[in-house]
């Protein structure tokens, strides 16, 4: 908004003329663009699944087997592992092999949503629910993914009150928009990812036990690269080929001496 003060002759402020613009439409467009970006990202990754450098070691072969076992069910999957181990890659492979592969896919970073916006972002809101919601209702991220799959990334970062709200969604398979009176049924397959030990967090009292068991229907633990060194050469060559192609450079390879150091 823009404020323009109007003064008396003696210099005192008589009144302030304010021009206020309703940003509801702008926010809705931003959310729609974000949803489309997620869709494009997923479609691109789904086409590249066959070339995905997830690894060929025994641990990754076992994970691929487990993905094949759980993908076509609607069971909630908890993917655990350290930061950078490829949990989102595993989630995309589950989606690509599922019965919902051609349905919406939404990756929600739980640590990136402020607590004050959690409900309105995930559940949406009705017209007039709060200041700024003047013109029309907003469809939330979960409702936008109805019929498809939602990845709750960094789920361990949710405050307790947000965990309670998420638990109800998992239990009832429904949401209530902010300012709404009736529940909206949703058909979503949930996948959660965490780089922390949620069971230990339950014992510490920082993560709800009932939510943990709702998420931990089927668990996939992605081992760090230091525990599967046989995949290092595969990953290095994959990323070299990728960046060489994107930069228009000639073929590059890591020297045997450098590879020996990396495999150390």
Largest sheet: 5 strands, parallel
Q: What would you call the shape?
A: globular
Give the % helix. Answer: 40-55%
The largest sheet has its strands arranged as: 4-7-10-3-11
Question: How many runs of DSSP E, i.e. beta strands?
Answer: 11
- How widely separated are the two ends? 60 Å
Uncertain stretches? 44-51
Sheet-strand content, in percent, reads: 15-25%
Oligomer: single chain
Instruction: State the order of secondary-structure elements, H for helix, E for strand.
Output: EEHHEHEHEEHEHEEEHHEHH
Number of helices: 10
Radius of gyration: 24 Å
Backbone structural class: alpha/beta
Tell me, rounded to a whole number, the average pLDDT. 82
Task: Kindly describe this structure.
It is a single chain. By secondary structure, the chain is an alpha/beta fold. Helix 6 (160-172) packs across helix 8. The protein is globular and about 85 Å long. Strand 1 and strand 2 form a beta hairpin. The strands form four sheets. The protein has a five-stranded parallel beta sheet with strand order 4-7-10-3-11. The longest helix is centred in the first third of the chain and has 24 residues, at 24-47. The protein has helices spanning 24-47, 58-70, 87-96, 118-123, 141-144, 160-172, 198-204, 209-215, 232-247, 256-263; strands at residues 2-7, 13-19, 77-80, 105-109, 124-125, 138-139, 149-153, 174-175, 184-185, 189-194, 218-221. It has ten helices and eleven strands.
């Amino acid at each position: 908004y823009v404020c323009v003060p109007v003064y008396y002759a003696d210099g005192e402020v008589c009144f302030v003329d304010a021009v206020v613009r309703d940003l509801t439409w702008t926010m809705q467009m931003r959310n729609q663009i974000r949803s489309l970006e997620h869709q494009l990202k997923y479609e691109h990754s789904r086409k590249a699944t066959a070339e995905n450098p997830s690894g060929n070691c025994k641990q990754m072969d076992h994970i691929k087997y487990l993905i094949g076992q759980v993908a076509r069910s609607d069971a909630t999957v908890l993917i655990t592992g350290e930061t950078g181990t490829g949990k989102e890659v595993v989630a995309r492979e589950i989606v690509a092999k599922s019965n919902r592969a051609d349905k919406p896919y939404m990756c929600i970073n739980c640590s990136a949503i402020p607590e004050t916006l959690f409900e309105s972002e995930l559940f949406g809101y009705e017209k007039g629910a709060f200041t700024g919601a003047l013109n029309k209702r907003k469809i939330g991220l979960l409702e936008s993914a109805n019929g498809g799959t939602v990845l709750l990334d960094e789920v361990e970062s949710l405050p307790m009150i947000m965990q309670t709200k998420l638990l109800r969604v998992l239990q009832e398979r429904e949401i209530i928009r902010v300012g709404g009176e009736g529940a909206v049924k949703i058909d979503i397959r949930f996948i959660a990812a965490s780089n922390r030990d949620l069971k230990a967090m339950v014992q510490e009292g920082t993560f709800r036990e009932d939510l943990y068991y709702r998420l931990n229907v089927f668990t996939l633990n992605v081992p760090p690269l230091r525990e599967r060194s046989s995949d290092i050469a595969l990953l290095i060559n994959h990323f070299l080929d990728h960046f060489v192609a994107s930069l228009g450079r000639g073929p590059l390879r890591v020297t045997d001496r450098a590879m020996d150091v990396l495999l150390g």
